[in-house]
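Quiz preparation item.
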């Protein structure tokens, strides 16, 4: 049964165009045998000749069959690949090491308003940015020429991912570039996959604008309520009971205000409108000031606060002091909020040579983070269950905002924690201003 199936398959394969040489081999064989029948008189020699030709034709056909089958299969997979690339919603551009365009799919034609014929086989270079119709394509191939570029991957690591924004018309591209290499690792060219995120970003921006307006509207009456309650609390004619009520009201209003402010910051970050204004900031003094402000709350919680300068008299970074203040205050507030009785908070500053970065850590002796929650605490609105027990109120936005601020300063943030023992947040900030991203980008996560 299996043999019958294989034979049927072989015969059906023989009908393929790629198998034409097998038919030619057999037709030649028939012709030679027929011709020799008339030429060779001796039946013995004729049989020897005919058998040799038959054996040769069989061997040749077998090899040809294998070769043709491989050719056919390659054609099928190349065709399949081509149709996938052609029908992809993302633009795909492949080019050789000398920037000669090899593949330009239908989406690329749409994105750049150029047809395949205008691009394939052409060598692209930065000088073409000024050529009519080729500007966006050239800026995408050479992102350093684009108006706004934000790197999303480590430098020199493939695939390289960058977000590029264009104005008039407004376009938002996420471009992922990878090497095309042969088996020995020799680079033959590059492939770029470009995703058009214009609509996605517009939706996020309009959502964040709505949240911004709502948060602004809420902030004004909340501030007024806070003042009113403050006035009541300080009123000498009020009984102690009523004063306590006013204080509770103030605490609740403060919590609500913090949530509203966090929402406002989140909306502005996501809309790419947080508005960073960088300048030189001296970190030793900067941290001392934040810790001085934190002393009141630390006293309330009965906590000790330490600052280890790591032997640094001063440490200068290029930062937005307001935003960096929000980020550090969030970490220090959390270290106090989720601490244990008679605990401590230690802020450490440390140079990390030879890297052009400075490291700040905020360590507490508190409740810790459950291992299962470690990967999620920087996500928007996430709060671990143990933290919710200690502090029912909380927006779950503080760390999300902090991470965005640190990233927008060219730094990194991570956490180490032991449940029930304490938590340390680490962050780095570049000391080299060229490592600070100049453009603010909208965040989608
Ligand atoms: P919030 O403090 O308002 O809940 P955050 O975004 O600042 O929001 O923190 C998110 C979550 O991360 C917290 O709810 C808590 O579960 C956890 N977390 C943050 N800092 C600490 C800390 N120092 N110790 C323990 N858990 C923490």
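Solution:
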């Amino acid at each position: 049964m299996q043999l019958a199936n294989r034979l049927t398959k072989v015969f059906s394969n023989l009908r393929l165009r790629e198998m034409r040489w097998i038919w030619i081999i057999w037709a030649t064989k028939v012709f030679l045998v027929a011709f020799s029948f008339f030429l060779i008189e001796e039946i013995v020699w004729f049989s020897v000749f005919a058998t040799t030709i038959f054996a040769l034709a069989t061997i040749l056909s077998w090899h040809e069959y294998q070769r043709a089958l491989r050719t056919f299969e390659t054609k099928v997979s190349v065709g399949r690949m081509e149709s996938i690339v052609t029908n992809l919603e993302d633009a795909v551009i492949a080019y050789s090491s000398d920037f000669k365009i090899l593949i330009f799919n239908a989406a690329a034609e749409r994105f750049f308003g150029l047809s395949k014929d205008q691009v394939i086989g052409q060598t692209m270079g930065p000088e073409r940015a000024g050529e009519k119709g080729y500007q966006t394509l050239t800026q995408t191939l050479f992102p350093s020429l684009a108006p706004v570029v934000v790197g999303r991957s480590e430098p020199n690591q493939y695939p390289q991912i960058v977000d590029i924004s264009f104005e008039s018309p407004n376009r938002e591209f996420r471009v992922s570039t990878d090497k095309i290499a042969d088996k020995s690792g020799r680079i033959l060219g590059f492939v770029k996959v470009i995703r058009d995120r214009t609509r996605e970003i517009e939706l996020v921006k309009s959502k964040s604008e709505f949240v911004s307006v709502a948060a602004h509207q809420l902030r004004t009456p909340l501030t007024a309520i806070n003042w009113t309650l403050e006035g009541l609390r300080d009123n000498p004619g009020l009984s102690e009971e009523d004063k306590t009520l006013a204080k509770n009201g103030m605490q609740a209003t403060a919590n609500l205000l913090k949530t509203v402010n966090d929402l406002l910051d989140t909306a502005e970050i996501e809309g790419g409108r947080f508005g960073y204004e960088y300048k030189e900031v001296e970190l030793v003094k900067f941290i001392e000031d934040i810790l001085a402000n934190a002393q009141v709350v630390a006293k309330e919680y009965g906590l000790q606060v330490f600052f280890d300068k790591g032997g640094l008299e001063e440490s200068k970074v290029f930062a937005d002091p307001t935003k960096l203040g929000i980020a550090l205050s969030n970490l220090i507030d959390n270290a106090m909020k989720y601490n244990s009785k008679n605990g401590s908070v230690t802020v450490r500053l440390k140079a990390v040579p030879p890297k052009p970065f400075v490291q700040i850590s905020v360590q507490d002796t508190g409740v810790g983070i459950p291992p299962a929650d470690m990967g999620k605490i920087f996500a928007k609105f996430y709060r671990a269950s143990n933290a919710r027990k200690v502090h029912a109120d909380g927006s779950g936005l503080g760390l999300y905002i902090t991470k965005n601020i640190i990233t927008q300063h060219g730094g990194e943030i991570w956490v180490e924690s032991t449940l029930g023992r304490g938590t340390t947040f680490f962050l780095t900030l570049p000391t080299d201003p060229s490592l600070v991203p100049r453009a603010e980008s909208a965040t989608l996560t």
